[in-house]
Each structure stands twice: as C-alpha cells, then as structure tokens.
Amino acid sequence: MTHRSHILVLSLIGTLWATAAQAQALPCPSRLKTVAAKAADTGQISDFSLVVGGETSSQTWLQDIALFRSGETTPLKGTEKGKRRIDWTFAAPTDVTVACVYEAGVVLTRAVSKVKGCSAAIERSKDGGEGWGMGTASFTCR
After folding, report:
1. Which domain holds residue 36?
2. Are 94 and 115 in contact (CB under 8 A)?
3. Where is the signal peptide, in residue numbers (predicted)?
4. Cα–Cα distance between 108 and 11 in angstroms, integer?
C-alpha cells in the first residue's frame, strides 16, 4: 500500500463507522469501473465508501488489502495462512475498517463494528505475474 493510499484510508477511519451483519462476506471488486476518478457503477461498491486520491479514466485494478483498528493509523499485521488467506484475531470485540486498495489512489473502505476476528481470502492476479496486484480478495468478519 502506498503512503498516499494510507493517508486516504486514514482520513476516513474517524468518520466511517457502520454496523455490519456478523460473518458477512465483503468482497473487493477486482476491477473498479470509474469515470473521471468517480465510481461509474455504484452497484459494485454498495457496501463500501469510496476514497479517490488520484486520476483514473475508465477502470482501476485491485492491488492490495488492509485492516485497521478503530482510531489507529497503521494497518494491522495479520497471520498468513498459506498464500491465500490472512487472519486477524482480537481478545475482545473490536471496531475495524477493511480497505480494498486500487491503482491511482482509489480505496474502498468499510467499517465493521465489534468483531472478534476477520479473515481475508486473497488470490494474486494471474495476468500480471507474481507481484502485480490481486485477482480477488474478500473479507469475512465475525
């Protein structure tokens, strides 16, 4: 995640808190359709808030994911479970924000209240090689 993307996500942490159903899957769209750096298809992101920090013409591709604890400014380090899953666990119910990070400084965020843990199922992009973005990513918080 770039420094610019961190700043964009962090600017929303204090203001975007919503309640989500327990164990609800929150998939990140792999390709976000955009127009003049705005979402062209808002149905793709109905569960998320959009932060635009750069310019993009017609689409932007998923690059990374992050999870933040309420009021904190650093992404939480999860426990990797192989190459396709990351887990985060908390001792007590915790408010978190999940983030889907795209090219050009575009970030989707979603606040989830009072969770004991979250998991992210991830698959690296097959089109661009080992280090180029993500094919799919989905969060589940419980």
Report:
1. 3-141
2. yes
3. 1-23
4. 12
Cα-only R_g, the chain? 14
Indicate the residue type of 16. Answer: L
> Of 84, 76, 59, which Cα lies nearest the Cα of 9?
76
Total number of domains constituting the chain: 1
* pLDDT string in tens for the chain (142-residue length): 454 444 334 343 333 333 333 567 899 888 887 765 567 788 888 888 877 666 666 778 888 899 999 878 799 999 999 889 999 999 999 999 999 988 877 889 999 999 999 999 998 776 654 555 688 999 999 9
Taking the chain, what is the end-to-end CA distance rounded to the nearest angstrom? 25
Name residue 141's amino acid. Answer: C
Please tell me the pTM assigned to this model.
0.70
